[in-house]
Specification:
The protein is mostly helical and 196 residues long. The protein has 9 helices and no strands.
Length: 196
């Protein structure tokens, strides 16, 4: 039995033979769901092979986006599918849909008792999209909730810079006021910014 590809990475076109996440998907989803149909008739042999990413079968990102949207419906808790879908939304210029999908996923992690992953995922998303005000806002809010004020101030400072660069004066003022509410060590500098 040669199973279909279960490799969802759009950046690396071929899987390694020993990627633990990939092996888990193949063994628990693909083999259990597809190859098990042959269990009653015979012994089933399924070779390991370097899978090609599912993205290789689609010429355009929009085609891949549609496919990953369908995959998310079939496997709504598969982290690799969801993260790839979010990444695709950003690549096709739909960051709002990316953030909506991210929000749904983060909520499902929290409800499922895996809220500890939320910070790492948001931090990674901000590293990938450092100008995205929605992501910066979410990470700053999370840090504030966790009483990580120094981290929240750093993220809010970045958010304020983005807002100033985009000439969003009112938003930048509101962000600086949020920073001041967290009582930063360098409050005088922020107060001076507000006075300008």
């Amino acid at each position: 039995f040669v199973h279909p590809t279960a490799w969802f990475n759009l950046e690396v076109w071929n899987d390694t033979l020993d990627d633990p996440k990939s092996l888990e998907v193949v063994d628990q989803l693909v083999m259990a769901g597809e190859a098990s149909a042959f269990n009653a008739c015979c012994r089933v042999f399924a070779p390991r092979y370097r899978q090609s990413t599912i993205g290789a079968f689609y010429g355009e990102r929009a085609d891949a986006l549609a496919s990953f949207q369908a995959l998310e419906q079939l496997q709504p808790h598969d982290e690799r599918i969801i993260i790839t879908l979010i990444d695709l939304y950003y690549k096709v210029g739909q960051p709002l849909n990316g953030r909506r999908t991210l929000d749904r996923y983060l909520i499902s992690l929290i409800k499922g008792g895996r809220g500890g992953k939320v910070v790492g995922i948001l931090e990674d998303m901000v590293r990938q999209h450092p100008e995205d005000q929605g992501l910066l806002e979410r990470l700053a809010r999370l840090y504030t909730q966790q009483k990580r004020n120094r981290d929240a101030i750093a993220v809010l400072d970045r958010l304020g810079e983005v807002q100033i660069d985009r000439r969003q004066t009112k938003k930048a003022i509101a962000t600086i006021e949020r920073i001041l509410a967290l009582k930063p060590a360098e409050a005088a500098g922020y107060q001076q910014l507000l006075a300008q």
